[in-house]
Batch of 4 targets.
Target 1
Amino acid sequence: MEDQVWTAARVATLIGRKFHISYSVSGATRLMRRLGFSPHVPARRVAERDEQAVTVWKEATWAEVKEPGRPAGATSVSRTRQASPASRPKDVPGADAE
């Protein structure tokens, strides 16, 4: 399911990409509130909504702004590679547990 919510994190990312200015998530939240924006999702769509323009915008801009998801194979939080069993020392505790 594709969400259409502008989170503070997404706004901070957009500001960084478009204006080359770094904002924290809390900074983006304060900026949005100062400009009169609230974190609420609209309850209904406007009658004048141009579906074709929305589709074009989603394909061109939203794909650029939306953060990519984590790859399906990435399950470890470590950025280092585990050593292969063949390269591990044989005299360490637990070496025979393979």
Target 2
Amino acid sequence: MSKQELEVIGQEADGACCQGLASAPLAEDRAVELAKVFKALGDPVRLRLLSMIASRDGGEVCVCELTPAFELSQPTISHHLKLLRQAGLIDCERRGTWVYYWVLPGVLDRLGAFLTTPESAGVTW
């Protein structure tokens, strides 16, 4: 497991999920926290990487399977994965020479709940 301590986003100290964007004005510290997550997701490569990891059968994927999907160098892919880890979206574990990645439990659900308003629950892109 990664030795880096990651803060669980979208969750209060008592374990309750945060209120949605439309339910109350966002506090400054919460806005700073969420901006890091959205900044990480604001890059098409990172968004694709997250999607590839999240949609993987078994819940995890080896970096060796991610790199060929892009016309980018391995260090560049590793940098993008590092930013996703720092944003608290994914975690990883080294196994031999390879690193395996997975989406942290509940992260995508909490982000979705934060962005969903009662009126838009059934709206799709």
Target 3
Amino acid sequence: MNEIVTRIADNVGLEPAVAEKALGMMLGFLQREAADGPVAKMIESIPGAVELVAQFNGEGAGKGLLGGLMSAIGGGGIMGLGQQLMSQGLGMGEITALAKETMAVAREYAGADVVDEVVASVPGLSQFV
């Protein structure tokens, strides 16, 4: 997982610790929101991803007024993840780059068909990847 985190940190322009947490949050989001079969296969295919999700899954979820409002009106989803990542200091460009890099890594380990199923099962995700 260290090689993957380093690659994402370098390609997105993040500190490795921030990249690791953001990657864990993104994978945790996918685990909660995507179709169960494909996302489980995808996460299990990426070395260290299961542990990363366990460490950071839900980190920052529902924190702050905006997070509470998003949850209250059912606006979690992709917007909720964006708010969580912004609370970690990421801007929209970095979030988009993180999503693209995460999916590129996932395609390498799980295959394009599995990743495409995951992306298609999450409303709004395709515009970021």
Target 4
Amino acid sequence: MTARLDSAQPYALGLFRIVVGLLFACHGAVALFGVLGGADGKGGTVATGAWPNWYAAVIELVGGTLVLLGLGTRVAAFVSSGAMAYAYFKVHQPQALWPVENSGEGAALYCWAMFLLIFTGSGAFGVDRLLSRRSSAQGRPSREQTPVAA
């Protein structure tokens, strides 16, 4: 059974990346474009250039879209993870110690989900993987490595 699950790992990781990227990008779209209820629940947006909300929204939209597509996944996940760590420690954590007390569960979960993608890469269904295959077909060495198994 373990061998079957291991063989499906790239596909499960690819689906994980797509869902996390889509949800993360939605947070940015809410704040920047006022869709899905907007930043204030009434279709409002954050003020352009307002620190840190506008910058966080740009990182969420761009980083989430890149992660969703699997394009530059590791770099996009690195920046996104850092943004969520900042959000947690500067916005949520001063209110209370535990995420359940300070409404920081989302920031903490996105931080760790993106952190995971830094080390795993895009998995299946990603543009990164397609570009890697194309470069190896042209005779260039592939940078993709076998994931570390426990």
